[in-house]
Amino acid sequence: MEDYGRFLALLASALLVGFVSVILSLVWVFHYREGLSWDGSLGEFNWHPVLIITGFVFIQGIAIIVYRLPWTWKCSKLLMKFIHAGLNTIAMILAIVSMVAVFEFHNAKNIPNMYSLHSWIGLTAVIFYSLQLFLGFAVFLLPFAPVHLRVALMPIHVYSGLTIFATVIATALMGITEKLIFALKSPAYSASPPEATLVNCLGLLLVIFGSLILWMASRPHWKRPPAENAKILRPTEATPDGTEVESTLTKSSNADKSDLRSNTEAARKQNIKFDEAGQRSTM
Amino acid sequence: MEDYGRFLALLASALLVGFVSVILSLVWVFHYREGLSWDGSLGEFNWHPVLIITGFVFIQGIAIIVYRLPWTWKCSKLLMKFIHAGLNTIAMILAIVSMVAVFEFHNAKNIPNMYSLHSWIGLTAVIFYSLQLFLGFAVFLLPFAPVHLRVALMPIHVYSGLTIFATVIATALMGITEKLIFALKSPAYSASPPEATLVNCLGLLLVIFGSLILWMASRPHWKRPPAENAKILRPTEATPDGTEVESTLTKSSNADKSDLRSNTEAARKQNIKFDEAGQRSTM
Hints:
The structure is a homodimer. By secondary structure, chain A is mostly helical. Chain A has two domains: 4-222, Four Helix Bundle (Hemerythrin (Met), subunit A), CATH 1.20.120.1770; 227-281, no CATH class. Helix content of chain A is 70%, strand content 0%. Chain A contains ten helices and no strands. The relative contact order of chain A is 0.14. Chain A binds chain B through residues 111-112, 115-118, 120-121, 124, 155, 159, 163, 166-167, 169-171, 173-174, 176-178, 180-182, 189-192, 196, 199-200, 203-204, 207, 211, 214-215, 218-221, 273, 276, and chain B through 111-112, 115-118, 120-121, 124, 155, 159, 163, 166-167, 169-171, 173-174, 176-178, 180-182, 189-192, 196, 199-200, 203-204, 207, 211, 214-215, 218-221, 273, 276.
């Protein structure tokens, strides 16, 4: 791997920043707020920031870069797809539980639901995340989708994943802003009490975490090595196997595969397309 | 250009969404708020959302995709760099004026400055944007930087540009959230008065605008054609000119250029690196 040391330093930084964010969210709710409970009180609301930061930011971030970890490159692509999908499923469950906590708290206190920009964009992000997860399972994990569909959808899957992740962080920042304005009364948010400083720092850490994940995810030379793809680049070697994107395909797609390799120039172009789409790592 | 029709449809959508966002910000401040003025009143504060949405979101978004417009591909790269830098300079000036408006309003009303997460992340974004603009001028526009420095910095320039753009939109969403909570009292934000609905829609449009710009900017096949780069891919043709990244370089970098082409495999790898970095279009 090129720049292995730099990758490890960035990974360690991302893990540290993500971990500290989760800790700060716990310090926030236990030291400055009402702790955690499940009884319609503010303690139930507090599950919302804790679970969003733990699941929808930290775990989703790890799920995004899981293919980048060099020590997983000896594992099968299918196993890594299960880990990627599994982490995203955990993130999604935590996000849904955290939303239930807010709705139950609002209903218990007769606070309207879904009036704020935070709630509009947050719910939109959860809906798109569910769609992304469902399509990811159906197209890239299950062995039924034809290769041309996978190739066509992979750039959209990658782009959607990163855009939803960025949107989730933006939504968390809006949520932090809302909560600090509503919760801090004397002293107010504008008086910068210690809680405000702590939670502002938490918001900054979320931006840094997101930036680190997006950098690691978008470096082409840190992708899982395209061992199979490389064979398309050298069609004269006449290797019989297909690209990585096909690794869980059934034999029904063999026609597609042979089409792909029917001519050197087409194969080269197709390979560039695969590379550009970043489909090699499902990320 | 591949998918020319689709590109035009997305460009038209982005321009429409961006334009409607600017209009909605004007409807907000003129129809629901105190209009625009420069006297320390709320009318001065209102320049902040209008100039941020016009300059720091809309114009910055256009600056990001300006290399993608196919009808500019016959123009020189240097001219396009000037347009890219010029649009970003306009965006930066509008962002700074919009910040002056808020500071003057806060000072006139004895409201503390820089206490909110919105202000922390917003100021950080402006500082990074200034650095990005300065480094962009120094490294990619002026003809002094050696090619290896340009190649090394281009991936960082592209990543920083897109990350700052996304962060600016996230900051705008926080600002909208703050303003609606502070400004709407009877009826409150939670009662969803028409102003809240309008401005929530404005926030959604900003997310859609950002998503469209990021999609257009990250499609490799919509990049400005790599006419010069292609010559590195075919070193046997012995073309004397360098890559596009060198188009404003002085002769002092000729040693670097010949180094780059000293061997076929190295040139191919270098070309892949150029392609991956997306340096061909400074975007």
